[in-house]
């Protein structure tokens, strides 16, 4: 089990933060293009899901999986989106993503007067705390080979 | 618990078959007196609630019928504009039924081709080599399962999150498609499936899957 990468988007689609751990394949496009594609896909999935749903939804879109990876999605009421790609064995990550928001983003970005909200995050403290948080997750371990 | 619907999408992203197996009723009917205490707006040719939730009426619900007569898009059965009609105090008290808007066939076509592209983007954004597109999409209200055959046809099943045994069902639908659509001499490839035997067999396998998979281990 492993974590591949993590994206944080704000409500306008700006990629605030990106980090990767065990990523085997790049998308073959520049990072900016990749962020746009990712945000665009999530935007469409959200509207797709809300039209398609036969019932009223509470949280809406939670995760999707392909044959090789699983994408976990969490959105705060303010429209910030946290996306984590893991392998297939990882169970629901909703609380983990919520924790990233409440214990890392709020603590080190929102409460930091030097951080401008809505711009890519520059804070080294946040980056290093996030890195150690993800590395400490029970399902973070580099697979053999 | 339930299988909601089945979609078959051809390799170009066109919807060639759709079947609604179970449509949950999420509707609320209520009688209102003149100043309507809900804010309505027109969205996608439907009149939907944009503000104010009460008695099971939620934001996003559409007006389904007025005084027991079904509405037709944004117009009442008599052809009057719903928003105008509800502004007129002489039409009150009025009984309005709200609920989730049912998808029109045009919307179903659009959603099917939308999923076709999402499927492709999902595989392009993969952090791992050799990934397929979206196979299972999860929300808190339903799970969408997709199976793409080697020839590029997608079978999509919408089911309750607790329903198990969908993978088997998708392969069974592929089998039914091969047996009753492809082997039908009057069926032309990539075109909408209109075969009675396909319908019948699909319905019976959905029933079997629903019965067998209820409350199974989380799929």
Describe the overall structure.
- The complex is a heterodimer of chains A (145) and B (219).
- With 145 residues, chain A is an alpha+beta fold.
- Chain A is built from three helices and five strands, in the order ββαβββαα.
- In chain A, a hairpin with a 4-residue loop joins strand 3 (61-65) and strand 4 (70-75).
- In chain A, helix 2 (94-110) packs antiparallel against helix 3.
- Chain A starts with a strand and ends in a 10-residue tail after the last helix.
- The mean pLDDT of chain A is 91.
- With 219 residues, chain B is of the alpha+beta class.
- Chain B is 28% helix and 27% strand.
- Chain B has a five-stranded antiparallel β-sheet, sandwiched between helices. A four-stranded antiparallel β-sheet of chain B has the order 3-8-6-7, with no helix packed on it. In chain B, strands 4-5 form a two-stranded antiparallel sheet.
- The interface between A and B is large, with 41 and 40 residues.
In summary, what is this structure?
With 145 residues, chain A is an alpha+beta fold. In chain A, 35% of the residues lie in helices and 21% in strands. The relative contact order of chain A is 0.21.
Q: Report the strand count of chain A.
A: 5
- Name given to the CATH architecture of chain A: 2-Layer Sandwich
Q: What structural category arises from helix and sheet content of chain B?
A: alpha+beta
Sheet of most strands of chain B = 5 strands, antiparallel
According to CATH, what is the class of chain A? Answer: Alpha Beta
- Parts with pLDDT < 50 across at least 5 consecutive residues of chain A: none
Helix share of residues of chain B? Answer: 25-40%
What's the CATH class of the largest domain in chain B, please?
A: Alpha Beta
What topology, given as strand order, has the largest sheet of chain A? 2-1-5-4-3
Main beta sheet of chain A, described?
Answer: 5 strands, antiparallel
Largest interface, per-chain counts? A-B, 41 and 40 residues
Family (chain B): Belongs to the TRAPP small subunits family. TRAPPC4 subfamily.
GO biological process, one term (chain B): endoplasmic reticulum to Golgi vesicle-mediated transport
Main location (chain B): endoplasmic reticulum
Subcellular location (chain B): Endoplasmic reticulum; Golgi apparatus, cis-Golgi network; Golgi apparatus
């Amino acid at each position: 089990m492993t974590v591949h990468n993590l994206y944080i988007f704000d409500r306008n689609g700006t990629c605030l933060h990106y980090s990767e751990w065990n990523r085997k394949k790049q998308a073959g496009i520049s990072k900016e293009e990749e962020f746009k594609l990712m945000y665009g896909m999530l935007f469409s999935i959200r509207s797709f899901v809300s039209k398609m749903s036969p019932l009223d939804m509470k949280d809406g879109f939670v995760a999707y999986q392909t044959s090789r990876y699983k994408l976990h999605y969490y959105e705060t009421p303010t429209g910030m989106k946290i996306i984590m790609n893991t392998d297939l064995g990882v169970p629901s990550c909703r609380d983990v993503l919520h924790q990233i928001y409440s214990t890392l983003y709020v603590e080190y970005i929102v409460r930091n007067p030097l951080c401008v909200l809505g711009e890519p995050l520059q804070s080294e403290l946040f980056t290093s705390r996030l890195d150690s948080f993800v590395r400490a997750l029970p399902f973070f371990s580099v697979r053999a080979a | 618990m339930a299988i909601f619907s089945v979609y078959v999408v051809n390799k170009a992203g066109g919807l060639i078959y759709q079947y609604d197996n179970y449509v949950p009723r999420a509707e609320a009917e209520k009688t209102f007196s003149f100043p309507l205490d809900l804010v309505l707006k027109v969205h996608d040719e439907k009149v939907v609630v944009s503000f104010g939730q009460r008695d099971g009426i939620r934001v996003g619900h559409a007006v389904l019928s007025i005084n027991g007569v079904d509405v037709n898009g944004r117009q009442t059965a008599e052809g009057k504009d719903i928003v105008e009609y509800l502004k007129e105090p002489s039409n009150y008290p009025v009984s309005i039924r709200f609920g989730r808007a049912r998808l029109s066939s045009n919307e179903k076509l659009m959603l099917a081709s939308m999923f076709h592209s999402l499927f492709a983007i999902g595989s392009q954004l993969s952090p791992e080599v050799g990934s397929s597109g979206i196979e299972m999409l999860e929300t808190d209200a339903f799970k969408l399962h997709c199976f793409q055959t080697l020839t590029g046809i997608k079978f999509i099943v919408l089911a309750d999150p607790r329903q198990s045994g969908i993978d088997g069902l998708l392969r069974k639908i592929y089998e039914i498609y091969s047996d009753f659509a492809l082997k039908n001499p009057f069926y032309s490839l990539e075109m909408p499936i209109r075969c009675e035997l396909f319908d019948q067999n699909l319905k019976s396998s959905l029933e079997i899957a629903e019965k067998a998979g209820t409350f199974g281990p989380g799929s």
